[in-house]
Design goal:
Length: about 350
């Protein structure tokens, strides 16, 4: 399938989470539809961090929320531990919820302002009473709050609005961890924080990942942030993946013009990236009427006639596990199209 992005999917059974041909569309009246996510496929193996990057409005957050079935994908599959979440309903889906948790972009608005922090973190354990008795739940919550760097006794007394933004994101991390999930979806968890606080939260996530053996889907518009936490990176543009690869490989040999433009926007005083500074011209097209052919052709500095009419297929970019959907990529070696 043209542009399906299946080239980078591993063999069946190897991935902990496998998203295949996922489509998310929203009707907006008068027969019009927002094509938020189109034919997206990726996978994550246990213990890995996959970074999903792209500019605002490209569909990153919608992809993240569709993975946890909020909203439900229009079509495609999301297979977690051998079960397709898109086919589960009611109690079956509810039983899977503790295994996939989420950290939201705005740490303050995602927390209940009426409840004390200790109660916010313990709510999941209260709902899932099967996790243990009351004594176990209290000890578990206290332990997690302490591990994310917050004072337990203060958390029993104060509400979220009495904490700073960075502390609120630590609360969000604790809330996600308390049910001992296998995957955490991080939806731009540091974009609303100061740079110094960003580093603290990123270090916390890395520490928690190692300590609990977590698998992460990390969403961000900032490639420099994603590189520091990701094993692999997937680049998204206007609802579709355009490049996927190992983090170091993608930074060393970006193949898609869009990826190169994103990298050139990173401050690089020592020119370590060895990419000439370029400017991304024009605005992101409307997802209601995406352009035909390659969706990036309206802004691409390398555009040719074939780009305007024919959608590029995901193909090898020459590196190990490095794939790109572009008619004229910057290749390490000759790319071979993957069916």
């Amino acid at each position: 399938m043209a542009g399906s992005g299946k080239a980078h999917l591993r063999a069946e059974g190897e991935a902990l989470l496998r998203v295949d041909n996922m489509v998310v569309e929203f009707p907006v009246g008068k027969g019009r539809v927002v094509h938020a996510v189109t034919d997206v496929s990726f996978d994550i193996i246990e213990g890995e961090t996959l970074g999903l990057v792209g500019e605002s409005g490209c569909g990153k957050s919608t992809t993240a929320k569709a993975v946890i079935q909020l909203p439900r994908p229009t079509s495609g599959s999301v297979v977690f531990e051998g079960k397709d979440l898109t086919q589960l309903k009611g109690e079956e889906l509810r039983r899977m919820r503790p295994e996939i948790q989420m950290i939201f972009q705005d740490p303050i608005s995602s927390l209940n302002p009426r409840r004390r922090v200790f109660d916010i973190v313990s709510e999941g354990v209260s709902v899932w009473s099967g996790k243990g008795d009351a004594g176990f739940a209290t000890d578990r919550v206290a332990s997690i709050i302490a591990e994310v760097g917050l004072d337990v006794e203060t958390a029993r007394k104060k509400r979220a609005h009495e904490y700073s933004g960075g502390q609120c994101q630590r609360i969000s991390v604790a809330r996600a961890l308390v049910l001992d999930p296998k995957i955490i979806v991080c939806d731009e968890p540091v974009s609303a924080l100061d740079v110094s606080v960003q580093a603290q939260v990123l270090n916390l996530l890395e520490d928690m990942k190692d300590r609990y053996g977590l698998t992460l889907l990390f969403i961000s518009h900032d490639l420099s942030v994603v590189k520091n936490v990701s094993d692999r990176i997937a680049v998204m543009y206007l609802g579709k993946l355009c490049e996927v690869g190992d983090s170091d490989e993608l930074f060393a040999n970006p193949a898609h013009p869009y990826t190169r433009l994103l990298l050139s926007a990173i401050p690089d005083a020592d020119n370590e990236l060895n990419i000439e500074a370029e400017t991304l011209e024009g605005e992101l097209p409307s997802p209601i009427t995406p352009p035909p052919g390659c969706r990036f052709h309206t802004r691409c500095p390398k555009v040719q006639d074939v780009c305007r009419s024919e959608e590029p297929q995901m193909a090898s970019a020459g590196g190990v596990d490095h794939f790109v959907a572009c008619h004229f990529p910057e290749l390490v070696e000759s790319a071979v199209t993957v069916s």
